[in-house]
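Reply to dn_fold:

You asked what the input looked like. This is it:
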Amino acid sequence: MSFKYINPGYAEFLDVAGGTTIADTVKSKTGVMFYQPTDKKGLVLAETPTELYGKFDVYIPKDRNDFSIKVAILETNGYALDGMGFAKRDNVMYFMRYYGGNSSGGKDAYLSEPERLNLKLEAINTFLFHIKTGVDGYVQIYANGLSVEKYDYDIKFGKSKTLVVYADSAYGAISNLILSDTEIDPKEQVVLLPVAATETTMAAGEDGEYIADTDGQTILQSIDTESLIRDYGADTVIKGIAVIGNPVCRTAEGLSNLTAIQSDGAAITEYGTKIAPHGTRGVVADGHALSLKISDITGYKFGWKAGAS
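and this is what came back:
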């Protein structure tokens, strides 16, 4: 198994309803962030990973507004977690370690001394973690590039496919979220790619929308690599791609599936399939791993294929 989940900060990208997306260019590098207050919900994976890596941003206010975050695998018993968390309670902040039905808080930091955990108040903080399974397993957590917690434990993910992504308050909204079963570089971040051109077999509608009425119709977009090279450099490596449909809806039951596709100029590869919401506009997204320099992505196109259920 290999999975790569990429989310700039949209609650709609999760496999659970009830989350909220917030547009904010000060508290999020991507311009959006979300909170999702349903406990023990988040993503449904295709397979159970053997390791879990994660990275996300959180803006921490200096006032005493409370919030709690959990990113962890939910064991098949439905209650035990294996992963990490962060909590801000009254005047204290601390990281949580979840392991085999147990949980423990690490060292804490008062709002008056955030440096104890390498945190910054009134600023965006980046958390990175690694959960290793097995008898030599551990929970390792980094804050803004510095290791702040490590707990050794015999961790077993079992056969669970539920990855909890929980944030109970707008005060601790998450953005720039990357999850994977392979290592995440500390410098890796989510970037919204500029579109250079669109090609489609769908009909063009009003307001830039595209309408599919036949099984197999596609929409593909190429990337403005010149703009990316100016901003990030030609040798910067793209580690994953998330294809986003926003907004999207279906008006009948026939065409309900959207399959993420990628063209390298010679062949089209299909990835995950999502179900378009019926009647009400929503958002669909699918991500996959990729390893290409920006200078090598010229000629690639990314998009969707409509299909019958």
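The mean pLDDT is 92.
Hope that clears it up.
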